[in-house]
Amino acid sequence: MNTIKDVAERAGVSIATVSRVFNDSSSVKSKTRDLVLQTARELAYSPNILARGLMRKKTETIGVVLPDLSGEFFSEVIRGIDEVAARRGYHILLSSSHSRLDDMERLLRLMAQGRVDGLLLMAPQLRKDLLPLLSTTKLPLVLLESSLEGLDADSYYIDNFRGAYLVVQHLIEHGHRRIAVIMGPEDNFDARERHKGYQAALTEKDIPFDGELAFKGDFQKRSGYFGMKRILSLDDPPTAVFAANDDMAIGAMEAAKEAKKAIPEDIAIVGFDDIPISRYVSPRLTTVHMPIYEMVSRATERVINRIEEAETGEIEKRMLSAGLMVRQSCGCSY
User: Is the pLDDT of residue 264 over 90?
Assistant: First the structure.
């Protein structure tokens, strides 16, 4: 394996000059820079990015901790973060907390040991247990779809309450009065806000909340599938179902089809997130559009600006609007 010394000898310059080239020093003449870079390419030499970052006290890496890495929702999140980071000259170090606080704490401690320059954290289950750790980290920190009272950090999140309210209100406008809900995890911030929006839409139209129509879910397709099976087994099943995310809504649609129920004629189904596949299932899924790319783009730009000290002002907490995406599964003909 060729070293920086080999590059220097082949190019006829000093090791210090090669080092300055790879550290983007403005003191190197353009002709010399071009020669060194061409020589490095010929020798297939690549500098150790981490070592270079340590010398500069920067790794040019953003730590990203998400509750999960699978599924279309998180694919969109990762794509948005990676595109902005790459455009700004940064890499991402991606990890999953598996929605477990102990894993999250371990990852945060690991990343805080100089492996990254800043952190993007999506933790809908964030609890006060982590407040001391998060408050004392010296790294720029930006939260995604997370909230923790007492934490002084930039945060970007979707108006989950309003989105759920709008989609359930739409079902009511179609004449539905018995509307079931397949909820997300109980300790999940997004899930709680969506459930509140569901209840608010019912209350506004004097429809009493019926606990018999509320079913536990975990944001996974299988919980939507089994939730719908339980819904259809009721003596007086509902005429519509609000699943708190699209994966569960798609699982619910599969169970309904297995039971020979026509959607939306026998039972209407709506979701939340507007993941790409929601446009292609049959019937196409009415859902709530989350501006995922916009949210993660803003957050990534923010953490990089904090790293580069381009933004040193007040903490920003930005709620982005969620919009109704009407298709066919609610009874509309779009």
Answer: yes
| Fold of the domain built from segment(s) 61-159+292-321 | Rossmann fold (3.40.50)
Q: Is the pLDDT of residue 185 over 80?
A: yes
pLDDT at res. 137: 79
Average of pLDDT values for 31-56? 72
Q: What six digits make up the tokens of 208?
A: 């009493």
The answer to whether 4-47 and 160-290 have equal CATH topology is no
Give per-residue pLDDT as tens, 289-312.
999 999 999 999 999 999 988 667
- For the four alpha carbons of 23, 27, 30 and 34, in that order, the dihedral sign comes to negative
Q: Was domain 160-290 assigned CATH 3.40.50.620?
A: no
Residue 180: what are its φ and ψ, rounded to 5°?
A: -85, 160
Question: What single DSSP character describes residue 310?
Answer: S
| Record: fold of 4-47 | 434 Repressor (Amino-terminal Domain) (1.10.260)
Report yes or no: 290 and 273 within 8 Å, Cβ to Cβ: yes
Helix, strand, coil % over all residues of the chain, rounded to 5: 45, 15, 40
